[in-house]
Amino acid sequence: MDIIISSSTSKPIYEQITMQIKAMIMSGELEAGAPLPSMRALAKSIHVSVITVQKAYEDLARDGFIDTTVGRGSFVAAQNKDFIQEEQQRRAEEHLQEAAEIGRTNGIPVDKLIELLKIFFQGDE
Question: How would DSSP label each residue in the chain?
Answer without folding.
Answer: ------SSSSS-HHHHHHHHHHHHHHHTSS-TTPBPPPHHHHHHHHT--HHHHHHHHHHHHHTTSEEEETTTEEEE----HHHHHHHHHHHHHHHHHHHHHHHHHHT--HHHHHHHHHHHHHTT-
